[in-house]
Specification:
Layout: H1 16-24, E1 31-32, H2 44-55, H3 68-82, E2 88-92, H4 94-106, E3 112-117, H5 121-129, E4 133-138, H6 147-153, E5 158-164, H7 176-189, E6 192-196, E7 218-223, E8 236-240, H8 245-256, H9 264-273, H10 279-296, E9 301-302, E10 310-314, H11 320-329, E11 332-333, E12 335-336, E13 346-350, H12 355-366
Parallel strand pairs: 1-11, 3-4, 3-5, 5-6, 6-7
Antiparallel strand pairs: 2-8, 7-8, 9-10, 10-13, 12-13
Length: 368
């Protein structure tokens, strides 16, 4: 039956993360370090906002571009952060939906897209789906922003540079100096930067700078899923300086024929989310980060995560996949690093779980 499928389906692979999620459902009380979502629930005040919106009848389509009140708040935040006057904005069906639309709007067959390795899984798959060419730039072993490596890989076919800070899977947060240096390279070459800032609420050692502060030709993608545990609500947004307004308008047009709009009642609740204080959650995750890092650093090679809720750890021997198989046999679920990389040397841990589970997992992993 595969002969009836479009050729493009052969350019992508099933998510290795989803395979581990499916495996988790068959195991009895595993130490689950695989889940890429918060272990707390949507805060009650925000649930009440969503329920009120449903009860008040906000259950129809919103405008494709998004709820007016939410977009107004987003525009104000973006102008305050970046100084962009009258920024272009679009509310998307999750950051993943925004990423899909961005690549659709920008990447032609044969275009080159620079992606830092390791990377979030969707980048490679969607670029391949569209017939683009992924140009991977290695950031091992410390996962810092490899500005000179990016400069060397730019060609006349380079269409886009993709960065993700805080990074999934490494937890790296790029410094202002690193981002300024990349902004200079991108400006010299006239290249658009796509900045995936899904985890920008989870920064543990200082502020989370954005390349949008230094490079107007930046498409910024942010979301509500991680900060407010709204992963199932599917809410994100895209913002740009007016110089990239045609890109956001093209994304909006394509959203009209794909996702149609983000979920309307949840957009109403998102307005309240922008005023909700999550510092307590961030402090709790900083403690989880410290617990995991201190428990593993003398046994494993790993860079200290500065943001998000992941650690990208080098397997002590063999491949990352082999170590993951061993861990799963001992009831610990982790993700093989090859899901996020052109290498198979590491594995990803999500510390979005309880302190007790982190301690249990540390002891098991140290004994493997």
């Amino acid at each position: 039956m595969t002969d009836i499928l479009a050729d493009r389906t052969r350019r992508i692979d099933a998510s290795g993360i989803r395979k581990v999620f499916a495996l988790a459902a068959t195991m009895k009380d595993p130490v689950n370090f695989s889940i890429g979502q918060p272990d707390f629930d949507v805060p009650d005040p925000l649930k009440r906002q969503a329920m009120a919106a449903i009860e008040q009848g906000f259950n129809s389509y919103s405008q494709t571009v998004g709820d007016a009140a939410l977009r107004q708040r987003i525009a104000g935040l973006i102008e305050s952060q970046f100084g962009w006057k009258d920024p272009a904005t679009l509310v998307t069906s999750g950051v993943s939906g925004g990423l899909f639309l961005a690549f659709m709007a920008l990447v032609n067959p044969g275009d080159e897209v620079i992606i830092l390795d390791p990377y979030f899984v969707i980048y490679k798959q969607v670029v391949n789906l569209l017939g683009g060419r992924c140009v991977f730039v290695d950031s091992y072993p410390d996962f810092r922003l490899p500005v000179e490596g990016i400069r060397r890989r730019i060609t006349d076919k380079t269409k886009l540079i993709v960065i993700n800070s805080p990074c999934n899977p490494s937890g790296a947060v790029y410094s202002a100096d690193e981002l300024k240096a990349l902004a200079q390279v991108a400006a010299e070459k006239g290249i658009v930067v796509l900045s995936d800032e899904s985890y920008d609420s989870f920064c543990y050692d200082g502020p989370c700078p954005s390349i949008g502060s230094y490079h107007p030709r930046t498409l910024v993608l942010k979301g509500f899923s991680k900060a407010y545990a709204m992963t199932g609500w599917r809410l994100g947004y895209v913002a740009s300086d007016p110089c990239l307004r045609p890109v956001v308008e093209a994304m909006t047009m394509m959203q009209q024929y794909t996702f149609v709009c983000a979920p309307t009642p949840f957009q109403k609740a998102a307005v309240a989310a922008l005023d909700f204080d999550i510092r307590g959650y961030v402090e709790a995750y900083r403690a989880k980060r410290d617990l995991l890092y201190e428990g593993l650093r003398d046994r494993f090679e790993l860079a200290r995560p500065q943001g998000a809720f992941y650690a990208f750890v080098k397997a002590p021997s063999g491949t990352g996949t082999e170590f993951v198989q061993k861990a799963i046999a001992h009831n610990v679920l982790i993700i093989p690093g090859g899901v996020f990389s052109e290498r198979d040397t590491h594995f990803r841990i999500s510390f979005a779980t309880s302190g007790a589970k982190i301690e249990q997992g540390i002891q098991i992993l140290r004994g493997l």
